[in-house]
Amino acid sequence: MPDSPSPYPAFTRRDFLATGAKLGAMLVAAPAFVRAATGSQTLNVGLIGCGEQGRVLLNAALKIPDIRFKAVCDIWGYNRTYAERLLGKFGHEAKPFEDYREMLAAVPDLDAVIVATPDFVHAEHTNAALKAGKHVYCEKLMAHTVEAARSMVVTARETGKLLQIGHQRRSNPRYQHARDRLVKEAHLLGRINNASGQWNRAVTEDLGYPAKYALTEDKLNQYGYANMHEFRNWRWFKRYAGGPISDLGAHQIDIFNWMLGANPSSVLAGGGVDYYKNHEWYDNAYVIYEYPTPTGIVRCTYQVLTTTSAGGGYHEYFMGDEGALKISENPKYTKLYREARAPEWDQWVDKGLIGRPGSGEGAPAPVKPWEKPKPKLGGPSKSATVDVRETAELSAWDIPVTLDKAIHQPHLENFFDAIRKDTPLNCTGDQAFASAVTVLKVNEAIAARTMLTFKPTDFVV
C-alpha cells in the first residue's frame, strides 16, 4: 500500500537546527515576543543597586504576581549576597553581577530593569538598560543634574522603551482619590491659594559597614567613590546626589507639581550645613515657590529639617478658601478640613467621597461613658484667651481610601502593567524631568541667596 502524502512539509535535521537557531535568536532578542507566543504574563526583571532602597523595592516587587528576578547587580558583594539570598528564599534564581554591563550582556531575556543606585549613576545605568532594549523603573530623584535627567528622557524616546521614575505617591490610591475626586471633581478646597510641605526628621547616625566586607580603595575609585564612608552615605555628598532636598523633598515637591497641574515660576530658598560637620549638603532648607495656575498664583512653602522630629512629621498641605487637604503616606497625618463658610459636605459623604469626622483610618476608638473626662472646676475659661480675630475652628473629615500594600508596590504594579497591558505610566520620564528641574533649583537658590526664576521651556525636553 503506497504511503499517503504527508500533510506536513518535509523537515530535515538541518532545517530544524537552522529554524531552531533563528527562533532561539528571536527568543533572546525579544522577550515580549516570547510572552505573546506563549501567553505568559511573567516578566523577567533585573535589579541594579541592592542597597537600602534596592531592598525596599525588592521586597515590594516580591509581592507582585508573575515577576521573576533573574539578575541582581551591585558593586558591593555584601549587598549582592543579601539580595541573592533574599530572592532565593522566594524561589528566584537571580544571577549576581558586579558590573551592570556584564549583567545586561549575560542575561539578555530581561524584560525590565529596576535602577536603585545612587543618583549620580542613574543616567548611566538607565540609558544603558534602555539601549539594551529593557524597560526601566528608576528611583527618584531622576538624576543629580538637569542634563543627566534630560539624557534619560531622550534615550527613552529614541529606544521606544518605558521609563518610570519612582515618585511613588502618584500611584498611591489615597493620593489619586484626593486629587482626582476631592480636588478636581468635587472642588472641596475651593480656590487653592497656598500649600506647604515638610519632612522633619530626628538626628540619624551615618551608615556604617562591617570592616571585613569593606571595598578596597581601588575598587571604590573604579566606580567613582572617594572612600567607604562616602559610598555608604552618598546622599550627603555633592558629587553623588543633591542632599536632603533631593532625597526627601523630591517626593513632596513632586506632589506640588502633580496636585496643582503646574510648574513653578520662581523659587526662593535658604539653608545651611549647620549641624553635621562631616557632610557637604545643607542639613536644613526652607523654600518658597510661586506656581502660576488658571485661578491665580499659588505660593508653596517647603521645609526639610534633619535634626528634629518636632513639628508633625512629613506631609503635604493644600489650602483653599473652602477647605484644606493634609495628606501623607502615613495615614495618621492625613485629614480633610472644611471651612465654616463652605457649602455643606453631606452630599459627598453620601457619595462615598469622604467620611464623617472621626470615621476614617487612624480614628480613635469611641470613648466609653465611664472614660469621658470629668469637667474641671475653677480656673480660667479657654474662651477667654481667644483673639477676637480668630476664625471658627475647621471641622476635620476623613478620606475613606486606604493603602493596604507596601507604599512602593502600587507604583511598581503600574510599571509592570504598562509593560503587559499598555497601561499609562503614572510618572513618565518627562513628568519626572519637570520635578527634577523644580527640586535641583533649590540648591542653586540657597547658594545664590536670592530668588531664581524658571522659564516654561526649562521643564521641557
CATH secondary-structure class of the largest domain? Alpha Beta
Tell me the distance between the termini.
74 Å
Structural class by secondary-structure content: alpha/beta
Q: Total helix count?
A: 15
Kindly describe this structure:
It is a single chain. This protein has helices spanning 13-29, 31-38, 52-61, 77-89, 100-106, 122-131, 146-159, 173-185, 217-222, 228-232, 244-247, 249-260, 346-350, 409-421, 429-448, and strands spanning 43-48, 67-73, 95-97, 112-115, 135-138, 163-165, 192-200, 266-272, 284-293, 296-305, 314-320, 323-327, 335-338, 395-397, 452-453. It contains 15 helices and 15 strands. The strands form two sheets. The protein has a nine-stranded mixed sheet. Strands 3-2-1-4-5-6 form a six-stranded parallel sheet, sandwiched between helices. The longest helix has 20 residues, at 429-448. Strand 12 and strand 13 (335-338) form a beta hairpin. By secondary structure, it is of the alpha/beta class. It folds into two domains: 43-169, Rossmann fold, CATH 3.40.50.720; 172-359 and 393-405 and 426-459, Dihydrodipicolinate Reductase, domain 2 (2-Layer Sandwich).
Short synopsis of the structure:
This protein is of the alpha/beta class and 461 residues long.
Provide key terms for this protein.
nine-stranded mixed sheet, six-stranded parallel sheet, Dihydrodipicolinate Reductase, domain 2, EC 1.-.-.-, alpha/beta, 34% helix, 461 residues, 2 domains, NAD(P)-bd_dom_sf
Show the helix and strand layout.
Layout: H1 13-29, H2 31-38, E1 43-48, H3 52-61, E2 67-73, H4 77-89, E3 95-97, H5 100-106, E4 112-115, H6 122-131, E5 135-138, H7 146-159, E6 163-165, H8 173-185, E7 192-200, H9 217-222, H10 228-232, H11 244-247, H12 249-260, E8 266-272, E9 284-293, E10 296-305, E11 314-320, E12 323-327, E13 335-338, H13 346-350, E14 395-397, H14 409-421, H15 429-448, E15 452-453
Parallel strand pairs: 1-2, 1-4, 2-3, 4-5, 5-6, 7-10
Antiparallel strand pairs: 7-11, 8-9, 8-15, 9-10, 11-12, 12-13, 13-14
Helix pairs in contact: 6-7, 7-15, 12-15
Enzyme class: oxidoreductase
EC number: 1.-.-.-
GO molecular function, one term: oxidoreductase activity
